[in-house]
Each structure stands twice: as C-alpha cells, then as structure tokens.
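User: Write out your own:

AI:
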Amino acid sequence: MAPRTVEELIYHMPTVEQRATNDWAKGFAASVRRQSRRRNWRPSPKQVSMMRRLVSEMFTDTEQEGEIILIE
C-alpha cells in the first residue's frame, strides 16, 4: 500500500483526536487540525511521520471496534 498523502492524514485527524487514548495524541491531532487551516501550512517531516503512525494505529487497532468478522 502506498503511503498516505498529507491531505489524507489531515482528513483523518478529527477521528484520531476522538479515538485517542491519551492527552498527548488528542492535543497533537487538534493542533494539526488548527494549523492545517492556515494558508500554505505544511507539516514538518517529523509531524508527517507522527501523523502516519497515529492514522496507521487507528486503522490497525481492532480492540476498540471489537472482533472482525470475515465473510467468505
């Protein structure tokens, strides 16, 4: 799978903020959302790396959503 674009990562930040299990992740996602509204704002490479990690964890964390049922 290709890495997510910055726009995709920003799109998922509200969900990351809602599902975050710690205050730091909630604050980071909220900060990114606020900053992304500024004209010509681009996240730093370190921010992009963290955004990718948080979004990836959101999609791979199945404990909160319960068991996945495979339909064949």
